[in-house]
């Protein structure tokens, strides 16, 4: 099996851990999202019951789960205090992210809309180096926690990185280069992924420090997905168990296609959970769906144990570790 370079670490909310110790890993989830602007977009986005989320994470842990990447950034409903408490009480590693979400996650008048590129870069660096903020939804963040960000989240809508998003992406790139922290970037149904990658790599961010999300939303994106994987970035697949988009059987075929084209070292898996998907909140699949249902389907399709180990252990260990 591919070995993670000695000395590489992943920054969790409880501190740095050896990168090789983080698997099995869910590479894109949402464990807590506060009420506010996200609720205005979709009430299913709100995840604010500590006991229910903890029940989901315990289920994940019982099946061998070890690390969860929470993809909600500062000021957009992230509850960093609960992420830290959850990790401490369950002994599951949690990676939290700084950065920014799609602008619709912020109300008009929010600081994200007019903060300079330099100030944003310093904010992102500060959460990586000094600690996450527990606030930031209603005003510039001030309540610091003893837990650091291990990832920079970025996002764009269907318009891509141009216009109002450009300074945000530049700030994220600068913070990544100065701290060695990887970037996870949201695409809208896979749109403009190559544009995001070009912007980042033109600014000096290495392709293997980029994790591109939601590329598996639409099965007709399969050829495009191969082009994205060909750039050397990590392709994060999180439409597993999201049956309004497609079946898990179709997802298996997409993963087999990536493997057949030689990209097994770049695949990351997650569920991109919402209230509608968490069993404890009355949802349909639960945080254990990946281990309980989907990985056995991959195995039955002919995906080897070594290839699944890469997707759940080795690839996340490399993708989420910091460059020195």
Which labels suit this protein?
324 residues; alpha/beta; three-stranded parallel β-sheet; TIM Barrel
Number of strands: 11
Distance between the termini: 23 Å
Q: Into which percentage range does the β-strand content fall? A: 5-15%
Q: Residue-averaged pLDDT, rounded?
A: 94
- Identify the strand order in the major beta sheet: 6-7-8-9-10-11
CATH architectural label: Alpha-Beta Barrel
Quaternary organisation of the protein chains:
single chain
> Main sheet?
6 strands, parallel
Q: List the secondary-structure elements in sequence, H or E.
A: EEEHHEHEEHEHEHEHEHEHH
Q: What is the percent of helical residues?
A: 25-40%
Indicate the CATH topology.
TIM Barrel
Shape field: globular
- Flag low-confidence runs: none
CATH class: Alpha Beta
Q: What is the overall number of helices?
A: 10
Determine Rg (CA atoms, Å).
18 Å
Domain unit count: 1
Q: Strand pairing plus helix content: what structural class?
A: alpha/beta
**Could you state the CATH homologous superfamily?**
Metal-dependent hydrolases
Would you kindly provide a written description of the structure presented here, covering whatever features stand out?
By secondary structure, this protein is an alpha/beta fold. It has a single domain (12-319), classed as Alpha-Beta Barrel (TIM Barrel). It has helices at 37-41, 50-62, 80-90, 117-129, 166-179, 193-202, 222-229, 248-260, 289-300, 305-319; strands at 9-12, 15-18, 25-29, 67-70, 93-95, 97-99, 151-155, 183-186, 210-213, 234-237, 267-269. The strands form 3 sheets. It has a 6-stranded parallel β-sheet. α4 (117-129) runs parallel beside α5. The protein is globular. The protein starts with 8 loop residues before the first strand and ends in a 5-residue tail after the last helix. The model has no long low-confidence stretch (mean pLDDT 94). Its cofactor is a divalent metal cation. Keywords: Hydrolase, Metal-binding. Zn(2+) 2 binds at residues 153, 186, 214.
């Amino acid at each position: 099996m591919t070995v993670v370079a000695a000395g590489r670490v992943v920054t969790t909310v409880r501190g740095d851990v050896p990168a090789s110790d983080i698997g099995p890993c869910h590479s894109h989830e949402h464990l807590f999202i506060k009420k506010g602007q996200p609720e205005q977009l979709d009430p299913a986005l709100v995840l604010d019951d500590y006991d229910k989320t903890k029940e989901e994470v315990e289920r994940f842990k019982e099946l061998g789960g070890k690390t969860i990447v929470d993809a909600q950034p500062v000021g957009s409903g992230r509850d960093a205090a609960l992420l830290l408490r959850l990790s401490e009480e369950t002994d599951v590693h949690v990676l939290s992210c700084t950065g920014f979400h799609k602008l619709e996650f912020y109300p008009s008048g929010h600081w994200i809309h007019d903060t300079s590129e330099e100030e944003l870069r310093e904010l992102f660096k500060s959460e990586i180096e000094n600690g996450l903020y527990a606030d930031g939804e209603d005003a510039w963040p001030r309540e610091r926690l003893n837990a650091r960000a291990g990832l920079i989240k970025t996002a764009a809508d269907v318009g891509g990185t141009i216009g109002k998003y450009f300074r945000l992406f530049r700030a994220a790139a600068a913070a990544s280069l100065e701290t060695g922290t990887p970037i996870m970037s949201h695409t809208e149904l896979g749109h403009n992924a190559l544009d995001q990658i070009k912007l980042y790599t033109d600014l000096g961010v290495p392709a293997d420090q980029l994790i591109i999300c939601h590329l598996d939303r639409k099965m007709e994106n399969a050829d495009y997905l191969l082009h994205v994987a060909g750039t050397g970035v990590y392709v994060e697949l999180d439409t597993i168990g999201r049956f309004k988009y497609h079946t898990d059987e179709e997802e298996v075929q997409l993963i087999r296609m990536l493997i057949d084209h030689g990209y097994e070292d770049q695949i990351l898996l997650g569920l991109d959970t919402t209230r509608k998907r968490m069993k404890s909140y009355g949802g349909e699949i639960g945080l254990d769906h990946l281990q309980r249902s989907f990985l056995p389907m991959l195995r039955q399709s002919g995906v080897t144990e070594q290839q699944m180990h890469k997707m759940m252990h080795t690839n996340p260990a490399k993708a989420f570790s910091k460059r020195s």
